[in-house]
Amino acid sequence: LAVGVDLEYRAALGRSPAAGGESLALVVRGTDDTVLRCMIPGGAVGLSMQSLRMLRVSHADRADMFEHLLDAPLLESPDGPRPLWTFLDYNAHSLVFLDVPGCLRGLARQRDPGDGHVRPEFWSSSARPARSARTGDGGRIAVPPYIEGVASEVRDAVGDAEDFSFVEYGSRQGYLSAQVAQWFPKATVVSIDSDRRNVKRHYDLLRAAGIENNIVGSTSLEETIGHLAKSPEFFQYQVLHDVLRELLPTQRTRQDFARLLGKAVAMGIHTFLSLPSEAQFSLAFSLLFEDREVLEEEADLTWQSLRSVGAGGDDSLAQSLFAPVAHPAELFSGMWRTFLEDVLEYRSLKRVRISMARNVRDAAYDTALLVLEDMERHVNHHYQSEKDGHERKYELHHERGDTYLLRAEDGSRIEYDTFGISLITLVRLGLPPAVMDELYNQFITIPLYEDNTPWNIQYHAGALQYVDKDSMEVTYENTAPYLYQTILAFMNYERTMKDFGRCFAHAPVRYGVPFVGNCVRSAVQFSCKTVEHPVPCADGKCHATFLDCLKSVRLREVQAAGEDAFSDHFRSSVRRLGVEGGDPVLSTAPDVPSTTLVWS
To answer: Which stretches does DSSP call E strand in 197-328?
Structure first.
């Protein structure tokens, strides 16, 4: 396929005899029959960007090509890319980038260029080989430049802090999360990626590096953000990669995208958004969407540049069009700040500070840092609490550096003094079985508290801990051995109550706890909300157990009938039990007279 312009030299793609027909060569023939061949990988079959631009391909195809160009190494050469040697491979539906000038320079330096074969620098948008991680000497993680740049910005923002929470959305192979976890072993690092193959490679990396404070889940990005936004989860630092490719395409309207991005930003104090750099964006846009006059000028300059390079000279004639120093163009300068200020309209975001930074190690990327200064969002009891029948609501606030919850039913305030992620959220993020086993090993070592439910267990710095502030002061390790005897005692007591004909229906106790409310259901229904006195009784009071309810009711029966109706022995028994003359009940149900004694 012709990829250039046929003037004094002719550039074409042809089979290379030296490669046995397996590879291709870019062949440049001079008028003096001089032949230069640059070896090209076999996948680079297609039209050049130059030809595609001149052919005016459809807007949809240009949009697809533009997405691939945002990942291309357009800024790595000081001269910038030349459309002539950026090829679109229709078979793989990807772009293939070839450093043809470098190849031709190499050939020109050889005495016998006709026999030389030099492989040019090769890049494919379908392979993206530079984005990988490995462990180096001593288990230290070697990361690619792009990740190294983002990681350094995170480290600068963290400063001297050691104990903090960090979440990475779209973590891929795990290089950034692993790097942060290795730098800060006391941090809580959570990674989310929808591809289970990436999750496996991520855990392989963690094992090789000996990292224990990074946990990885596998769920869809959009779904996870939606559920997290309705939960009380809140992080100190978070990174979203490829916002344009991961979030934008999933949304039907601009408003939907703004709402989704706003939800994500509202989940962390510091949010890093990885974006194509303004220079990269500007240059990629210029490659695809310039007008015809520019295209014609470019074609002439490209041709002259190729001729000069093939003769051993330089290709400075084309620098004015696509040199990195010419970008970003005025249209794209400051575009990301304007874009973010325009779309961050989510109702929870009261005040957000935006700053932009160029990735210090990869000029193809910029990083937006969004810092929450005032945020309020309405949340449920925990992650996907609707599955568990929980209806309690809260308001999550972050203002002037303080983060806290306000419980809707009583206005009580719960401070965020430790940051991590709840066990119920991790369980629903699709953790691998081996990781679930390790969490189980940790869970069974936690002391027995009143409320060891998964929303009261927090993953923090690689370990599980109990965090319910209402009940964390008391454990039941010492009383647990007597649980069987206590339950048996209640069962036997109930058996005797039935023989007396005094065991009525069971009172409804919160959470359906058995035995404590047996036999004392009253006709007047009300609920008891405290764990100290959970049993609604026929006397209109809340008691600790049905035993206390029975004694209180019997005492009132005595008082109503008069003491003469009972024997001295009974009256002395009542005194020994500490019931007579006192009121063992702490609360009265509304609208229930204290003297009403009605059994169901």
So the answer is: 214-217, 235-240, 268-276
Task: Output the tens digit of pLDDT for each of the chain's 600 residues.
Answer: 233 332 222 334 433 333 344 455 556 555 555 555 665 555 445 566 666 666 667 777 777 778 778 877 777 766 555 544 555 554 445 666 555 555 555 555 443 444 444 444 444 444 433 333 445 445 566 777 888 889 999 999 999 999 999 999 999 999 999 999 999 999 999 999 999 999 999 999 999 999 999 999 999 989 999 999 999 999 999 999 878 777 777 787 888 888 999 999 999 999 999 888 998 888 888 877 765 555 555 555 444 544 454 444 444 444 456 777 888 888 888 999 999 988 887 888 999 999 998 777 788 888 999 999 999 999 999 999 999 988 899 999 999 889 999 999 889 999 999 999 999 999 999 999 999 999 999 999 999 999 999 999 999 999 999 999 889 999 999 999 999 999 999 999 999 999 999 898 899 998 889 999 999 988 778 889 888 999 999 989 999 999 999 988 888 887 777 766 667 766 666 666 554 333 433 334 444 444 444 555
Do residues 343 and 354 lie in contact, with contact meaning Cβ atoms separated by under 8 Å? no
The model carries a pTM of 0.77
DSSP-derived letter for residue 567 is -
123-128-129-133 Cα dihedral, nearest 10 degrees: 150
CB atoms within 10 A of CB 177: 30
Give the separation between CA 172 and CA 132, rounded to whole angstroms: 9
* β-bridge partners, 239: 168, 272
CB atoms within 10 A of CB 129: 9
Query: Which residues are bridge partners to 217 per DSSP?
Result: 192
DSSP letter string, 134-202: EE-GGGPEE--HHHHHHHHHHHHHHTT--S-EEEEES-TTSHHHHHHHHH-TTSEEEEE-S-HHHHHHH
Half-sphere exposure of 52 (CA within 13 A, CB side): 26
Residues constituting the chain: 600
Q: How many CB atoms are located within 10 Å of the residue 210 CB?
A: 10
- Collect all residues with Cβ–Cβ distance below 8 Å to 273 and sequence separation of at least 6: 239, 240, 243, 340, 367, 368, 370
Instruction: Enumerate the β-bridge partners of residue 271.
Output: 238, 370
* CB neighbour burial string for 240-251, b if at least 16 within 10 angstroms, e if fewer: bbbbbebbeeee
| Residue 280 CB neighbours (<10 A) | 26
570 φ, ψ (degrees, to nearest 5) = -65, -45
Helices 59-69, 278-289: axis angle to 10 degrees equals: 150
Which are the contacts of 35, defined by CB distance < 8 A and separation ≥ 6? Answer: 27, 28, 29, 113, 114
